[in-house]
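User: I'm preparing a small set of examples for a lab meeting where we compare how different chains pack in three dimensions. I only have the primary sequence for this one, and I'd like the structure in token form so I can line it up with the others. Please keep the answer compact; I'll paste it straight into my notes.
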Amino acid sequence: MAQHDYINRQPKTRQSAKNKKNAQVSQRKPFPVFLSIAAVILITGFTYGLWYIKTNADPEQVNQAQMPKTVAKKIDTAPEKPRDPEFLEEIRNHEVKVDVKEIKRNGPYQMQCASLRTYPEAEALKAKMAFAGLIAEIKRTEGNNGVWYRVRLGPYDSKRKAESDKNKLKRIHIIGCAIWGWT
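Assistant: Understood. Below is the structure token output for the 183-residue chain.
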């Protein structure tokens, strides 16, 4: 809601259109003369300052500022000495010896994505993995609490390859696959 100024409000009176125009003209604030005088003084002062700098400048300093400084270099008349041929031969025949460390591998890896109660559920998951381009196997295991069907991928030579396939499975919303060393 708009705020209203009830204290300074003028009482409504009937005015003609001509009186309203005169009232509006008289209510306008006059243009601040002080600001216009200050602007004229500033512009004049700035112009005078530029003119003063231009006319009273030292010609030697102006020429020096316009010309780039040249640095006199000591020029050797003797050409550069050629390298020894022995040195060049030594560079050509030099061998660099580097210690190559063997990367320790923990062995082949496998990835298990699910352990399901029924064989048709395991087959459905295996088919979903096949659409991602991965070949899975279903392994039947019997434990204390019944028969389980494990859906596994692998073996993988490196953990990096297993992680790559795990990321493929994440893209098709198969989450929770675990990677471990071959047992």
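A couple of notes for your slides: The helical segments are 17-27, 33-55, 59-66, 85-93, 119-131, 159-171. The CA atoms of residues 57 and 63 lie 11 Å apart.

User: Perfect, thanks.
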